[in-house]
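Review form for a predicted model. The reviewer records the input and the model, then writes brief findings.
Reviewer: anonymous (R2)
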Amino acid sequence: MNSLAGELRLQPGAPVPHSLHSTRQAWAARVGRDQPANALPGLLAGVFSLCGHSHRIASQLAIRAIEPGLLPAPDAVPVQLQRETALEHLRRIGLDWPRLLAGPAGADPIVASAARSLQRCPLTARTPGVAPGPALRQWLQDEWLQMAPATWLRAWQACGTDWLDDWSRRHRGWLPALLQSAKAADGPLNLAPAHALRPHARDESMRALGAALALRPDLARRPLWQGHWAHTGTWSRLHLGEPAQAWGAWSLLGCRLAELVRLSLPDEPGHAGAGWLAWGALTTGPRQGLAWVEMARGLLIHQVTLAAPVSGAMPVVAACQVLAPTEWNFHPEGVAAQALAGLPSDAPDLAPRVRLLMAALDPCVPFELTPKGAPNPETCDA
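Model under review:
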């Protein structure tokens, strides 16, 4: 399966661009071409199964930007994005973080405690169409935060990483303990605000990105924005102002937890609930539409071109490109590659530092760690 999904091969200490190699393929362009337009959303949701719901919505929106009546309108897009993004955060925090971040001595108890807490989460029951609400807020307060979610978020907004450190020191439970144990492996990241991926702030920027994709489909594998690599995630949301501090890998764990809290709060446009995540679509050329959604790993962009219509027949896809967060954050010259290049290959804590980096930037494929001189790689699911 890894040969189909691809993987990341990490070489800490090697210079950029040799510190990171991705074997991810541009499957959307291959499998989408010549498909009936009404089959494309389901097909891409299956290909990108980890984030399938977001891919389905983005594909539907891109096609509707070309022909508004061709597909049924996606139902309640803000609520769907809110729910599915919250679920993805819950899975990553409750399943991936314990496995990646817990030290050998405490891994089994933390993994077991996290799994039990997820089983009690009301949102994981997957009642279709039900948005996060009071039940999730109460669960977060009882299980993970030990305080009111709105209070936790206000403190995070005011103090950022200092609050995360203070909270995780003062409270009991598997999540505060896990965060404290992971803090020793922290390291800086090059997350300059100028390189935050926010083209969806202006339609002109999205059209420029769509034009670049149409001219150079290979950008889907090694994307550039305004001639430069970019980073995307919960820390670069359209509705979020520029950070007042330099984020490190450990800080990004707090960013993810903070967004889960935001999504659990009552709806407030541009601030919380179903009003938090940005999404949209527009026409970028003749029979060409582009759509974007903010999802758990960052900004997801789909561009679809439909072939000339044939009377009485469902239009077919002439071209399809997907720009996924993994390709931005794990660009061979991007934020992850630079962080890996700065890690000493012989550091005794190399593996924990790499696992923290992967938990923070969250690729959607497995990664393989191959330190210099190591005879066997260490492979982990991301």
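Findings: The radius of gyration is 21 Å.
Further findings: Residues 375-379 have pLDDT under 50 and may be disordered.
Recommendation: see findings above.
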